[in-house]
Design a protein that fits this description.
Helices cover about 75% and strands about 0% of the residues. It is mostly helical and about 80 residues long. The protein has one domain.
Length: about 80
């Protein structure tokens, strides 16, 4: 289940410029991105590309995160150096 904080983090990734985020990123934020948000986005990505049968798409929809926002968050995370695939 997505926490409110994770939802906000994903929405920020979906609507922000990676260059600006990277400039202000602390080690703690980078670690959280990689260890928590990155895991969620990786599972969401696999669900939508490999049809793994997980429920992240439903979780995103319940949290008000659209498919386009999910894709944008993945793209931004990749530009920040987070391995998604």
């Amino acid at each position: 289940m997505l926490s409110l904080e994770n939802v906000e983090f994903i929405k920020i990734l979906a609507t922000s410029d990676a260059t600006i985020l990277q400039a202000g990123m602390t080690e703690a934020i980078r670690r959280r991105l990689d260890e928590e948000i990155g895991v969620i986005l990786r599972e969401y990505y696999r669900e939508n590309t490999q049809f793994t049968g997980t429920t992240w798409t439903d979780e995103f929809q319940k949290a008000g995160i659209t498919e386009d926002q999910g894709k944008a968050a993945i793209a931004c995370a990749r530009r920040l150096g987070i391995d998604i695939s």
